[in-house]
Amino acid sequence: MPYAEITGWGKCLPPAIMTNNDLATFMDTSDEWIFSRTGMRERRISHVDVDELAYVAAERAIACAGLEANDIDGIIFGTTTPTTLAPNCASYVQKKLGNKNAAAMDLNSACCSFLFALSNATALIKNQVMKKVLVIGAEKLSWAVDWSNRNVAVLFGDGAGAVVVEATDEPVGVLSSKMGCYGDVRESLAIDNFGSGFDRTANTYSHVTWNFDGQEIFKRATRGMVLATEDVLAKANMTAEDIDVVVPHQANLRIIEAVAKRLNTPMEKVMVNVERYANTSAATIPVALCEALERGMITPGANVAIPAFGAGLTWGAAFVKWGQRVTPVSSSSVELPANDKSALELIKPYLDIAEKHQK
C-alpha cells in the first residue's frame, strides 16, 4: 500500500488589508480590545471570488511540486463559502488549470475542511484510487460575516492555501488521522440564515447573521484538538515530545496557547500567523504550512502535528511525517487580478446591508 507525501504547497492572500483600527471606524472596538482577546492585528479582504483565490494557490502548489496541471487526477476543495453550490468550486479550479483528467469535489466541514480533505486525499492514494491529488482550503468569509456583530466581525479574513499529495513508497505524509464532531452543540457556531433551510424571500435574507457562543466554542475546541492530537500520536507510536512542529488551525491565539499547554508543547514549536490573517477557516492550515516551511520550522523528516476544529462542532488532527524536500521545485507567475479598492471599500456593500437591517 502506498503512502501519500506532500510534495507541493502554495498560498494566496488577497492584497487588501483590514486592520483593527479600520474596524474601529465603524464599530465600538479598538486594536487593544481585539488583540488582547484574539491575538489578531489584521486580516485580508478579497476582491475576487473564493474559487479564484483557490486557483492561484493551486497553481503555486502544482509548480512547487514540479508538476503540470494534467498530472493531477483528483481535486478536493475544502470551503464553507463556495462561489456556487452547483457546479462545485473544484470544477472551476480544474477548468482554470486546464486539467482534463481530475475528479473534482467540494468538502464542507467549516474550519476542518482542509484537514478532512487531506485525510480523504491520503485515503484515496493509499487505496490506489488516485496518484496525485490537489487539496485546497479557501474561504471568502468577508462575504458571510455579519459586519454589525463585533464578536464575529473582528475574527475572520479571506485567503487560500493548497497542497499536492503524491503516492510514494516512503513512509511519509499523513501517517495517522482522527476526525470527529460535537454535533450536540452544533448551534454554538452557526450562520443563522444561510442555506436552503431558510426563507430566501424574507426581507432579512440578504443580511447574514451568526450565532457565536465563545465560551462553548473555546471549551469544545481545545478539548477536541487535544484529544485528536493525542489519538494520532498514539496511533503513530509517538508522544508530544516527539513532535517538531505543531501547525494548528488559526482561530484565536488563546485557543492555540491552550492547546499547546495541554500538550506540553512549547510555543516556539507552534506555527502562529493569526496576527496577520485572523481566522481564514479552511485556509488557515495550508497557509500556515506554507509559512512554516518559509520560516524553516519544518525541516526534512520533521514530525508535524496538525489539529483543527470548526463549526459543527467538527474537530480532528493529523500526524504528518514530512518528506525530504522543504523547498519548491519551481514557482508560478500566476497572480490575482489587480485591485484598486481598500478593504473598507470592499466591505461597504455589506455594511450598507447591515445598516439597513438595523433600521
From TrEMBL:
Pfam families: ACP_syn_III (PF08545), ACP_syn_III_C (PF08541)
Domain comment in the entry: The last Arg residue of the ACP-binding site is essential for the weak association between ACP/AcpP and FabH.
Catalysed reactions, semicolon-separated: malonyl-[ACP] + acetyl-CoA + H(+) = 3-oxobutanoyl-[ACP] + CO2 + CoA
Descriptive protein name: Beta-ketoacyl-[acyl-carrier-protein] synthase III
Enzyme class: transferase
Region (ACP-binding): 250-254
Gene Ontology CC terms, in alphabetical order: cytoplasm
Main location: cytoplasm
Domain Beta-ketoacyl-[acyl-carrier-protein] synthase III C-terminal: 233-322
Similarity annotation: Belongs to the thiolase-like superfamily. FabH family.
Underlying gene: fabH
Source organism superkingdom: Bacteria
Record keywords, A-Z: Acyltransferase, Cytoplasm, Fatty acid biosynthesis, Fatty acid metabolism, Lipid biosynthesis, Lipid metabolism, Multifunctional enzyme, Transferase
EC number(s) recorded for this UniProt protein: 2.3.1.180
GO biological process assignments: fatty acid biosynthetic process
The Beta-ketoacyl-[acyl-carrier-protein] synthase III N-terminal domain, residue ranges: 105-183
Complexes and interactors: Homodimer.
Entry's localization field: Cytoplasm
Record: active site: C111, H249, N279
Record bears the keyword Transport: no
InterPro entries membership: ACP_syn_III_C, ACP_syn_III_N, FabH, Thiolase-like
GO MF terms, alphabetically ordered: 3-oxoacyl-[acyl-carrier-protein] synthase activity; beta-ketoacyl-acyl-carrier-protein synthase III activity
